[in-house]
Amino acid sequence: MRAFLLFLIILFAAGTAGAQEIFNFRLNGNGARSAGLGYAFTGVADDASAISWNPAGLVQLYQMEASVVGRMSAASGTVDGLRDVGITNWDVEAQSNFQFNFASFVVPFSLGGLDIVGGVAFRRMFDFSQELTQTIKTDGFSFNYLEQVRYSNVEGGINAIAPSLGIKINDMFSVGVTANILTGAEDGDSSVEIDGLLDSENSYSIDYSGLIIDIGVLARLSEMISVGATVSLPHDRKYTIVDIDGTNPGLGESTISAPMFYRVGVGFRPTDNLLIAADYNSRPISQIKLESGATLADFDVPDVNSFHVGLEYLLGTETIIPIRLGYYTNPLGIKDVDKNEVVAGVITAGTGIALGNVILDASIELSGYQQTLDNTGPNDITFTEGDVFITLGAVIHLGE
User: Fold this and answer.
1) Which range (21-35, 153-167, 173-187, 261-275) has the least confidence?
2) What's the number of domains the chain is made of?
3) CA-to-CA distance for 265 and 45, rounded, in angstroms?
4) Mean of the pLDDT values across residues 15-28?
5) Collapsing DSSP states into helix, strand and coil, what is residue 6?
6) CA diameter of the chain
7) What average pLDDT does this structure show over 28-40?
8) Could you tell me which of 34, 164, 260, 306 has the fewest CB atoms within 10 Å of its CB?
9) CATH of the domain at 374
10) Which residues contact 222 (CB under 8 A, 6 or more apart)?
11) Euclidean distance between CA atoms 182 and 160, whole angstroms
12) What is the pLDDT of residue 238?
């Protein structure tokens, strides 16, 4: 058990203080409205965030508009079950500053008798930003310290400059495409203090690049029902580790190759005031291939497929206030000691208000999960975490 404890401490340190996010392909949704709907938006896609969800939905926009979205988060967790080996408390606190999430500009126009909406977005596709503090307290007998504090701070992520086009084929069908030109960087630093004295410090920096092509289709089967699908074509994520503890390691550019991802969704409008939506998001990250030829499946990494449901109800007549609720599963790409995939459940809510040509939206996401780390001793060792995300957005209609 003691050997496992030492391994556990090293694992948590590596997993949070200096772990590059090179293999992070988890969902980072764009837009405050879609967040309130539990990111069930592929079959809806009726605002500017369609650039990221389903570009075919852009044809539902009839005037120029611009949008901007930001997000912040906080989390706390505990490792339990270690008192019998001398660890009395192991607390984890995490937070991020207000981060850019999405900005866009779209313009409708006609060409060759076709209704077309063009747009461009700058979006955070994968967000790595997080400041994390782990505080480990012991009884002073089993370990040679009373308190160990592990601090890590990661800033940045993978952004995309995303030109997009939606084309209306007829009253029922539309298609669209988004080219996500990847750019971004990840900068991390960490430190360890033992009983108030600095024990070690580390830092790293990674640059990212690549291209992801999204192709979308939207079918309005009736006034009440729409269905949509988006395919992200197989693509490469290129990365360069440019700094480790103040020194460029000179490793050069590396590449990992991702398979096709897809999502499908449906929107159901039984009345003018009510929208019900559902999505399925497939991200088979276990098939991601390294330059060596190995895949993440060889390292027992599970896929991160997710389910999403949401509803929106419009209150009022002259001043309309939307009420949004949703739920989605958020697989973390890890397994517990019994080889079961660890999946967080996320409850979402949101609202908004229109002030002339400006629409303001806000959402909150509440997430939680528990992971069993070891079950061979008298007490199970578990890690329990709760998260909150707040997203704020504004849309400005520029046309009549």
Assistant:
1) 21-35
2) 1
3) 10
4) 68
5) helix
6) 80
7) 94
8) 260
9) 2.40.160.60
10) none
11) 4
12) 96
For residues 243-254, b (16+ Cβ closer than 10 Å) or e, as one string?
beeeeeeeeeee
**Half-sphere exposure for 356 (CA within 13 Å, toward CB):** 3
Angle at 32 between CA 31 and CA 37, to 5 degrees: 100
Residue-by-residue DSSP string for 352-397: EEEETTEEEEEEEEEEEEEEEEE-SSSS-EEEEEEEEEEEEEEEEE
Tokens of 343: 């999946």
- Residues 92 and 80: their CA atoms lie apart, in Å, by 11
Q: Specify which residues 384 forms β-bridges with.
A: 78, 370
354: pLDDT strictly greater than 60: yes
* pLDDT given at position 15: 46
Query: How far is the CA of 39 from the CAs of 47, 170, 285, in angstroms?
Result: 13, 27, 20
The residues pairing with 117 across neighbouring beta strands, listed in sequence order, are 108, 166
Per residue in 282-300, pLDDT (tens digit) is 999 999 999 999 999 999 9
What type of residue is 232? Answer: S
Which residues span the domain enclosing 271? 2-397
Quote the tokens at residue 107: 């313009």
Which helix (H) or strand (E) covers residue 53, if one does?
helix 50-53
Q: 113 Cβ partners below 8 Å, 6+ apart?
A: none
Residue 267: its pLDDT value, please? 98
Encoded tokens for 90: 């192991």
C-alpha–C-alpha distance, residues 5 and 381, integer Å: 10
